[in-house]
Design goal:
The chain is an alpha+beta fold and 356 residues long. Among the domains are: 59 residues, no CATH class; 173 residues, Oxidoreductase, molybdopterin-binding domain (Sulfite Oxidase, Chain A, domain 2, Alpha-Beta Complex). Helices cover 27% and strands 16% of the residues. The chain is built from nine helices and twelve strands. β5 and β6 form a beta hairpin. It is flat, with a radius of gyration of 51 Å.
Length: 356
Amino acid sequence: MADAPRDGGAPETPAEATPAKPSAPDLPAAASPTGSLSESPPAAAETASPPPAEPPAREPPPPPKPPPARRRASRFAERDPAPVELPLASLRRQSRRDFVLFGAGAALAAAGFWWLLPDDTKGRAPFPHDWLDTLEARLGANPEARERFLNRALTFDDDVAEALYSPTRSIRTYRRSDVTPLPNNYSGRTPDPGYLAGWRLTVEGLASGRPETLSIDDLKSRFRRHDQVTRLVCVEGWSAIAAWGGIRFVDFLGAFPPAEGAQWARLDSAVNLDSSGNPDPYYVSIDLPTARHPQTLLATHWNDRLLPVAHGAPLRLLAPMKLGLKNIKAITKITYSAEQPPDYWNERGYSKYDGL
């Protein structure tokens, strides 16, 4: 019999052999709210927050825009050429074609230049040119066609100059210190001063219907003098700055108004001479809108003194918006008309308008 347990307890029986349960890995004890350690896994380990996200990378600021002038310049800047590969045969064909076209263009340009030359210039050519004249005649490029073509070209040039003219836009003026020497631009001989004693200005085509005859003293006493420093531009290629004084043409038109319908003025110089000293009457045409420009003068003074004979004493036209050949010297007559009057240099192949 087995021994009874002491102290009245249950008899001890030997423990049955049972398989051992795998023990959980040792975990650190968590502190309980009361400060004791707990064997359960800490709650913080189960709900651990992810690491803080890195801030997004900041984009670099855009480069500053170049100024407008530089942007415009870069727009038209020359680009680096891109290489292009072409077969050798294609390059040869293109070279032959370009040579033929260039040769044909050069031949046509030379023929046109020859056609435009005056007949007396062609007569001095150092090579025979009968075949060229024959070819021109067969193509209808005769002297009459040449004159029509040149006249149309001059008319087109006049139309452009007239369209660009503005009665309110002033010609540039200068300081007295800018004055330069003024050449004597008489195309012939300078007249003898003897004509000054009997000089008179005749005005025709007036609204009154009767002509007027004026002396230089009549003009000086009747009109206020206006001074200006402007540039005179010659068709030969030179120019000069001078101080001018005289009567505004618009004031003259107000005192001696033209007849109704007048659009032009013809100015004559009966004392003009050719290179041999023979009388060579000079005449120019000027449109009345140009005559009414505030800077168009009937000049009586040059550089603060009376006009010398070399510069058109006692009265000359000063229209700085026209070429010098329009600025007639020693005026003896002014005639208003509805139709454009003849012009000395236009009859010799120059433009009628001659605007700058």
